[in-house]
Structures
1.
Amino acid sequence: MNLDDALALTQRFPEDKTVPEKLADAIKKSSGYEKKMLIKLGEGVILDATTKEERKLVQKFLMS
């Protein structure tokens, strides 16, 4: 997943509940600058989580 795709993906959260898992997979498969930028996008997803369900999702996939 390139950074443009990742940005488009993160903009679908919280409506699309699969975003945290997909982003976590992309982070695991990346390295260097791309990984750093994907992590920053993940931080934005964490901030967008407002309900208990959303917080559980981001905690499971992006904070472990």
2.
Amino acid sequence: MAKEIERKFLVEDLSYRSMADSCHNIVQTYLSANPDATVRLRIVDGRGFITVKGRNSGSERDEWEYEIPEADAREMMERCSHTPVIDKTRYRVGRWEVDEYHGTLSGLIVAEIELSGADESVSLLPFVGKEVTGDCRYYNSALALSGRIPEDGGDSIRPRDSCIE
């Protein structure tokens, strides 16, 4: 089991593309999305993964991820999906992951950085904009359920333990 501690930001420009170390195509969906446990299916460049995430506790949560056969991942996506599929391209820029969404979420670009501790300082890269850590609307499970880019405005930031991801 690993602990996931991350911060999430909106992206202001496309400069990350020229800075990227690698690029991956991702499709994902959720078999379960509730505050106690989220079960995600993901296919990354033809490799299947299943991930279980526990309840949020502040900025961290438990996470288990296992590789599974791609055919099994595709079959589970077709038969057991709880949400629509998210299609995105992930760019890696050093420790940063930048997700460029497609389909109904086209135009949304989010950058995340995983931290070793909640108090670790972060050096922001030039393309990084507004922080949305803890804003439930930007969780992938919420994006999958809504199928639309969140609108600015309103108080959507809630304690992470009340959000589903």
3.
Amino acid sequence: MRDVRRSSARRTCSKTGLVLVPSASREVYRLAKPSYGALNPLLRAVSGDESRAPWNRYDVAGQRTVYAASTEEGAYGELLAPLKPKLPVAASTYFDDVGVDDELDSLIKEEWDDAGFRPPRDIDLAWLAEYRLYRVTLPTMGWFIDIEAASSLSAIAKYPPQSLVDRGIGEVTVAELRGSDRSLTTAIATRLWPITLDDNSLAHGIMYGSRHGSEWNCWAIWLRRTRRGRAPKGLIPTANHGVEVLPPAVNPPLDAIMAVYRLTGSW
């Protein structure tokens, strides 16, 4: 995978200080159910009363945002991440009649094996058949914000969301951007969304690192609306019809992520 952050076309906006990477018809990957399609995400409310905990990382109030990964493996990695193994928990935290070295997961696995149930992290993969893997082509022209670049982090202080100021947050680092505080990350996205860059264009969205590994980048694509309802050709993302999600045995990207996450399953 080409390292976007080392691309010669990457530049710093002279007006905002934000680091920009060219959209340039780049291809990224997204898993979605056909009932929604590749480019039909939820419209987020404008009201400030709604909890943003269910929102995705760089959603913008009053807008729609599509998420994709730079590789097929990344698309599977983001979807399956909640199933990854967790750090071991001592069984003695919950039970008195266990050994000091007993782990909760091991005891659960033993009981489930004895009962004939599927062991933890051995998953029924049939639900994946409900998805399709879409190839999304980013707009021909324009830019994405490399939000985790040092200059971009400094630029956030130049354009601080009022809600962060009110909360007394004095600095935003990569740690905060990759954290679970959606009120923080979505406030930053909403603040950056209307800002005009030095070429008088608006950013198409945000490129950011995955919380689950450095092997792929993630892309938050803002589906901007215009008075005519659609943006001009060359300024909107497009997507193919998607391909069927096949079992790991004949699906190398899925098989690779299953191995990385130490997951097993049946189709």
